## 1
Amino acid sequence: MSTEAQALETTDGFHLVIDALKLNGIDTIYALPGIPITDFLRMAQAEGMKVICFRHEQNAGHAAAAHGYLTGRPGICFTVSAPGFLNGLTALANATTNCFPMILVSGSSEREIVDLQQGDYEEMDQLAIARPLCKAAYRVLHAEDIGVGLARAIRSALSGRPGGVYLDLPAKLFAQSLSTEVARKSLIEVVDPAPRQLPAPEAVERAIDLLKSASKPLVILGKGAAYARADAEIRQFIEATGVPYLPMSMAKGLLPDTHPQCASAARSFVLAEADVVMLVGARLNWLLSHGKGKTWGAGSPKEPARARIIQVDISPIEPDSNVATAAPVIGDIGSCISALNRAIGSGWSRPDAAWTGAIAERKDKNLTRMTETLAKDSSPMTFQTALSVIRDMVRERPDAILVNEGANTLDFCRSTVDMFEPRKRLDVGTWGIMGIGMGYSVAAALVSGKPVIAVCGDSAFGFSGMEVETICRYDLPVCVVVFNNNGVYRGTDVNPRGTEAAPTAFVKDARYEMMMQAFGGVGVRAATRTELRAAIDEAVASGRPTLVNAIIDENAGTESGRITSLNPSAAKKKPA
Ligand code: ADP
Ligand code: TZD
């Protein structure tokens, strides 16, 4: 082609967005169509991208967030403007809260009309609304800036503490044309979007000195540690130091939960007793009682932990968030743990046998009690009876991904079901958000190609239940197990006036399995442990979309699960 002809050849915003995504290795888009996204999605599919469309934007957004967490590359979600954007926003905010990299891209109305509030189709100042809810927000007004816009979005999502990014693309942008030559030159392939950040040598030394001085040391691994993919370094550190560790929920499996140094079964004991605690990719937020009070062996609820704190984190402002941090180690976990491994040296002495022995004793006692509880084949099924099946299943298929949401369903599953491989457990995370179930499951199945078992309370499942159609449409190996106890938390709530249903009560004996059948998938009602086991076995073996309606005793569990204490009136009631 002559230079003249080349100069005349044009492309448009639609194709430039696709080219920019592909250039940066992004091959999957989670979306829900509508103007101007429909054409974009068709073109992206025609250009060989994987386009996965949902029934509600929140679920597409949750899928993008899980994709980001599981791959270490930003998950991409496309929505239409105003209502579609707002539906996606919860997922964007949740991704940011959980430190998952994702980019929400929404079409938007023309700036001129939005700024004068002249009433455009789905008019909304989306950039302003998104900004406080994510890590960064950008708008691209000219097609030649698409490359820069996406590069900034990718860097913002991945570098430092990962998070959600909003990218605003006004409808007019997609149709803008420009010469292919100019377009090509405008694209940016992001180099090293999550650069290593090395810790300062003196910070490493300070941390090691403190850890050495401990007589009851403890490591807490959080989902930042799982995200960091420093699995081998972390294992080496734990095993070389001999320090007991506690995995936070999504860090379960980073080392197998059956590891002799895992202190999960003695959680209360180690938190209350430890004198030095090293946090690795875990925040001292509500999930760790803010590092204060009785949980941490302190007298009063506001009193800081007895333990001195080492914090390994990529965010330099995370230390001292709740209580004093004696030794912050700032950098990416891979670099930090490698540096700590080097610094341990040969003169390391493993923790006192009095400490590890006391932990082992408590673990044994608690694990024996749990084994007894799990052995009970209760009818109707309790949470534990049903979860014993999930526990066996995961032990046999440690490569399967477990998605988990609900209250009791979440709390019991977390403490009952051992994980054996990193990044195999996805759950409600930092906010305890309901509704991640089907979005996370779709992304997990696509990214891993492995079976996904989604263990959801009946209320939790309802938030994203319509996506069973999506699971059937893409024929994904997802087995949804609905823990059906007829309501939110439990099914026994009664309206004292006897008029409409009580706040937490659902229709009794609902046939959730028929929802999957409606779209061509497999639906099974399982009232016993044997039926549940058979249904899940079959689902995992066949890889067919399956929903198992697991019938749980409606009296089982407690209101709010294990966070009853945060619920002022429920805290006064005696748990069942
Ligand atoms: P959990 O809920 O499992 O306790 P959190 O979400 O509270 O975990 O904490 C995750 C922490 O991990 C955040 O403070 C975040 O800054 C940190 N983090 C995420 N990725 C990395 C990384 N690659 N290196 C270091 N820290 C990281
Ligand atoms: N809305 C959102 C988005 N997130 C929430 N966490 C809640 C509401 C409040 N909530 C919980 O914290 S757990 C839960 C709700 C509604 C559901 C519990 O009922 P379930 O689980 O049936 O899913 P269990 O296992 O039966 O207790």
## 2
Amino acid sequence: MSQLRLDLKIISSIILVSTIYFAHAQDSPQPMKMKSAMTELWEPIPAVVTPGLPDVTGSTKAPSDAIVLFGDTDLSAWQNKEGHAAEWSVHDGVFTVNKGKGDIFSKQSFEDFQLHIEWMVPQGITGEGQRRGNSGIFLQNMYEVQVVDSYENLTYVNGQAGSIYKQTPPLKNAMRPPGDWNVFDIIYTAPRFKENGSLIVPAYVTVIHNGVIIQNHTQITGHTPNTGLPKYKPHGPGPIRLQDHGDPSEAISFRNIWIREM
Ligand code: MG
């Protein structure tokens, strides 16, 4: 059941309880005494989900209702810009940006979701600022949550790891050092547009980095270009895009990617 339908059901239950209460109050000289059970909701019953367990490395596996976008060997949920097989290199249960092969896109498109994704800056990385382990996670192919080495590596704050690129810096720097895995848990609600293309509601995003909240229901103000100001262009569901930034430095790796539609 969608969040909207769930909210409507809860609101209608509250209206029903209130109506009974006030109708009774109007007929009686004394307001009806509230009982504990009058504010209990018994349906709809939330669906059961079996949570994923952490493995020996602390990587939390997908819950039972998630779509696995990468487990440990299979990159078939991803494609390149032309719609052909993604050519990033899969090895040792992870995959690594293959510089020059371009961004990769999930084959499936999404609207509102919870995304779990793990990424690692290679040990011994070189380069500075934005040219040090730069990649990115584009939500609906439009809005970049920045991936870059922000462990003792200075850059503009709305371009460091976990920023909404060129918009909102992260609240904290929860970066692990090169060679250790970072985890992003991203909760995203898509923007909504009228039929004429005008914006009704902007996108919002919450990002938890290694257990630390770094974006708290942050309003996204438009797309995230390197040069220029953010703007909204109307769109429907879109894929997750991972960036091949083409830095001279060593490339970022990813593992254990799963998504839950909301
Ligand atoms: Mg980037």
